[in-house]
Design goal:
By secondary structure, the chain is α+β, with helices and mostly antiparallel strands. Helices cover 49% and strands 20% of the residues. It has 4 domains: 2-27 and 290-364; 68-179, Beta-Lactamase, CATH 3.30.450; 373-419, no CATH class; 429-582, 2-Layer Sandwich (Heat Shock Protein 90), CATH 3.30.565.10. Helix 6 packs antiparallel against helix 7 (321-364).
């Protein structure tokens, strides 16, 4: 009897060890999987925040580069005067871009014109100004010691005809205004500069915290260092910290270098959901194993009782025949119950696996249906109609519907091809371009907007290809800009029509005409930031036509705008492609 008891306790101890080992392994594996998912989402959030900040600062960098060689500012460097016009130009640019300061200085650092305040300040010795004097774009950030406000500075050089730097345009942006719509959004993200100091963040309580030495965490500029500990779980770096109510107590630390702005983007992603999910998975597995163990223990006990009963029955076979029969019946019932329980357990496991598959499928299919939903619905409708016409023995009409299904599928492929081609960053040199295909692509990319705004587009497409010198993607961008500008100009017009025509004279010429109010000042239409839209509107900053002008000029072509009897006409002239010119 004692041997049986010792054997039972040994089995229970082994089962407890098995339960702890399997549950711990499930927790560890589930924790690693959950951290991997959190890391993927965190990397996406961090990349989005980094791209957002870079894009915000890129506007002011482009402003400095575009305006540095402006003729009004060059006149100041040449000593031809025009301080009032220069100040008005800089003030207009600052108002449209919300820049903190826009100043133009000569090569000695003397400010010749400023959007805010009077000229006379000396910029000599400032890092961004000195870098611009060497012909490069100067980028620098600092904190105003008087006001404590943070600022980014972009300095672009203006070159004289002999190649020397004759002036520098400096655009400064207030970092606080950049952070306004981002503060408190998403997980804690902070950008650390080369001085290991938090310069930009969406959690204001972490501003100006710094990393001392080789330490992993951050400390505030004043006061005691809050609790912090870095741990590694499943191959991931986790921070356990107490940095305030809006920063998670346990977070996954992610890092993304940003050499473009001289900073490092870091994020602390809340890891508590991963622990909860891993704990839930381990608890479910432990419950299943425990239920199976209890069932197995009960079965072993019943088998032991049965063995004892069989030993007694062997001695009293003649007298206890009926009791043995009853025991055998009970044993069959228990075996049946055991088989049913095992089948139920297997079904529960299969359902759990299937639920995991469905969950993964739902996560993957969330974002693939929007753009192609309308053609798919049309394909389904035409397929149903084709089946109905076949039942009615009308194969000609059914064949027409099948042809429309094929056309819809071709349209979906064309949409995907055009969007992918339009989105790629073209870096190839100029070459042979089919101008008809370029215009067709631009028309298709803008057709959805034109239909939504009830704009009629007439495109007299010639037969065959018309080859020109240029870059395909950049030319598509030019014509998309022209079509969109034409649609914007006709916003208040009842009869909206855009006409595109192609002429082959000494050069290839494409006319884009609209029925809008026309161009107020054709001589200034291609200047940067010249726009007839209201200041601060969401329609743009007046750079679309200026960019199109630069693209066409890079192909050796020309673009001009004029007025007709019906509205505005923009003409793009390009050189035709030929074998001799290519050689």
């Amino acid at each position: 009897m004692r041997a049986i008891i010792r054997h039972r306790y040994a089995i229970r101890l082994a089962f407890a060890l098995l339960l702890a080992t399997v549950s711990g392994g499930v927790w560890w594996f589930g924790y690693g999987q959950a951290l991997a998912q959190i890391e993927e989402r965190g990397k996406s959030d961090l990349a989005l925040a980094a791209d957002w900040l870079t894009a915000q600062l890129q506007r002011y960098q482009e402003l400095a580069v575009l305006m540095a060689p402006h003729p009004t500012l060059v006149a100041l460097s040449d000593g031809r005067g025009g301080e009032g016009a220069a100040k008005a130009l800089l003030l207009d640019a600052a108002d449209k871009t919300t820049a903190r300061a826009v100043v133009y200085a000569d090569s000695e650092g003397h400010v010749l014109a400023s959007a805010f305040g009077d000229a006379g300040e000396i910029l000599r010795g400032r890092p961004y100004f000195e870098r611009a004097l060497h012909g490069a774009l100067g980028v620098y950030h600092d904190v105003d010691p008087a006001s404590g406000r943070r600022a980014f500075h972009f300095a672009a050089p203006s070159f004289a005809s002999d190649g020397r730097v004759q002036g520098v345009l400096v655009v400064s942006v207030d970092v606080t205004s950049v952070e306004e719509n981002w503060r408190g959004d998403g997980p804690p993200v902070f950008f650390v500069d080369d001085n290991k100091r938090v310069f930009i963040t969406n959690r204001s309580e972490l501003l100006f915290w710094e990393r001392r030495g080789d330490m992993a965490g951050l400390v505030p500029p004043v006061g005691a260092r809050p609790a912090f500990r870095e741990i590694t779980r499943a191959g991931y770096a986790l921070w356990r910290l107490d940095w305030g109510p809006y920063v998670p107590n346990l977070g996954l630390h992610l890092v993304k270098p940003l050499p473009v702005i001289g900073m490092t983007a870091e994020a602390v992603i809340d890891a508590a959901p991963a622990r909860q999910l891993a704990g839930l998975q381990a608890a479910v597995v432990a419950a299943l194993i425990l239920a199976f163990g209890i069932f197995l223990d009960q079965a072993m006990r019943r088998r032991q009782v049965l063995a004892q009963a069989n030993a007694v029955l062997e001695e009293r076979v003649a007298a206890r025949t009926e009791a043995l029969s009853l025991s055998n019946t009970q044993l069959r019932r228990e075996i049946t119950e055991r088989q049913e329980a095992e089948a139920a357990l297997k079904k529960a496991q299969a359902d759990l696996v299937q639920a995991g598959k469905l969950s993964a499928l739902g996560q993957m299919s969330a974002g693939i249906s929007h753009e192609l939903n309308q053609p798919l619905m049309a394909i389904r409708q035409y397929a149903d109609n084709a089946a109905l016409f076949l039942e009615r023995e009308k194969p000609e009409v059914a064949g027409d519907n099948l042809g429309r299904i094929s056309a819809m599928a071709a349209r979906m492929a064309r949409i995907i091809k055009n969007l992918r081609a339009f989105a790629r960053n073209e870096s190839e040199p100029m070459g042979k371009v089919d101008l008809v295909q370029v215009i067709e692509t631009a028309v298709e990319l803008t057709s959805a907007r034109l239909r939504a705004e009830d704009v009629r587009l007439t495109w007299d497409m010639p037969e065959g290809a018309v080859l020109a010198w240029g870059g395909e993607v950049r030319l598509v961008q030019v014509f998309v800009n022209l079509i969109n500008n034409a649609a914007d100009a006709m916003a208040g017009v009842a009869d909206k029509e855009i006409t595109i025509s192609l002429r082959h004279d000494a050069r290839l010429a494409v006319d884009v005409a609209d029925t809008g109010p026309g161009i107020e000042d054709p001589d200034r239409i291609f200047e940067p930031f010249y726009s007839t839209k209201a200041v601060g509107s969401s329609d743009g900053m007046g750079l679309g036509l200026s960019i199109s002008y630069g693209l066409v000029q890079s192909f050796g072509g020309a673009i001009r705008g004029s007025n007709s009897a019906r509205g505005a006409v923009f003409t793009v002239e390009l050189d035709p492609w030929s074998e001799e010119a290519a050689a």
